[in-house]
Amino acid sequence: MSTRTPHRPPGTGTAARTVGATVGEPVFEQLADELWDAVSAADEHTAVEVVVGALERGADPESVLLDVIARVQAKVGEEWAANRINVAQEHAATAINERAVAALSLHPAARPTPTRGRITVACVDGEWHALPARLLAEVLTLRGWQVDYLGAQVPSPHLIAHLHRTDSDAVALSSSIATRLPAAHAAITACQAVGVPVLVGGAAFGPDGRYAFLLDADAWAPDARAAADRLALGPLPRPRADHQQLDDLPHLADQEYTLITRNSTALVRAVFTALQDAFPAMRTYSEVQLERTAEDLAHIVEFLATALYLGDEDLFAGFLTWTAQILTARGVPASSLPPTLDALARELKDFPRATRILERGAEALTPVDHSTAESRS
Fold first, then answer.
1. What contacts 258, CB < 8 A, 6 or more positions away?
2. Reduced to 3 states, what is the DSSP secondary structure of residue 147?
């Protein structure tokens, strides 16, 4: 299954030419274009110059964070998905955007005196995409909160230890990848058990926040502005002290999620072996391609387990259609996915919920396979 643009010395790009322009929405769009040019060229100095220059001209720091840097970061993800940049370029671009955020945070225009309470901002255990949480932390700081930003991949015990040492009014928990939702649920429940309410956000929780509500978070926000607005309205509701994870997801009593998670390595190995017979093209794969195939299988099993955890068949179906699009963009046939689902179904024939989820995934792939076949004819 398995452009680099010319370097521009600081001060010679379009950022220097727009000094004195009126700061407004058209200018933020232009600044985002300039920042993208710098980021895509791996030009950290010009990227920082774009951001600092905007602040020097009187741009609102929050707008620079969310209408410039966040906009560019979204484009980084889109370009990676379309296979127009590779993983290394995506990581480099993200690192430069993080440096731009750091430069903004050190500017005098972005150093208000705290006038509100204290918020802890953290990423779920296993979540390495820290930039959304960092953007929120900076926005909350700009709005007068005292912010404890804990960064990426914060294990729940360490998060709770931090809450015991501080007097946080709330935790803002970020996750971008749906497979981190079981860990998010554990963190939400643990924070609530010590009396601290939790606001969650990030792509993992769904565009409408459906998984936030399913996992009984105290609040959800679709973006940093909305999160800051919600916290400004007043304290979040105090959580129930006796809340347990199983209260939210009673279907977990069937143990399917637990059994599949515990045996995921053996399951991936069995499906990998079965695929070599069901998908003859694998016999010509290089060692690298075989490694990538094993990684893809592990991701599929992980998303299947997450769908079992949440009791949501559409989560797995959506992941499969996205995966098919990613594979197609990279010139890899998505036709390897149905045999994978068949092999999984054979291994999990005694798991009724898993079987239904796999069937729903196969149904979702049908139009993808049809359109792929048409494009090749």
1. 252
2. strand
At 37, which amino acid appears?
D
Instruction: Decide: helix, strand or coil at residue 28.
Output: helix
Q: Is there a contact between 259 and 252 (Cβ–Cβ < 8 Å)?
A: no
**Where in 152-310 does DSSP place strands (E)?**
170-174, 198-201, 219-220
Both structure tokens of 361: 């995934």
In single-letter form, the type of residue at position 92 comes to A
pTM: 0.87
Query: Considering only CA atoms, which of 58, 135, 140 is closest in space to residue 101?
Result: 135
Q: Provide the 3-class DSSP secondary structure of residue 39.
A: helix
Provide the pLDDT confidence category of residue 24 given band limits of 50, 70 and 90: low
Q: What is the mean pLDDT of residues 235-256?
A: 85
d(CA 266, CA 172): 36
Break the chain down into helix, strand, coil percent, rounded to 5.
65, 5, 30
DSSP tally for the chain: helices H, then strands E: 18, 5
Contact (CB, 8 A) for 165 and 157: no
d(CA 265, CA 57): 55
**185 near 217, Cβ under 8 Å?**
no
**pLDDT of res. 25:** 63
Look up residue 86 and give its two tokens.
Answer: 């590779």
**Beta partners for 170?**
119
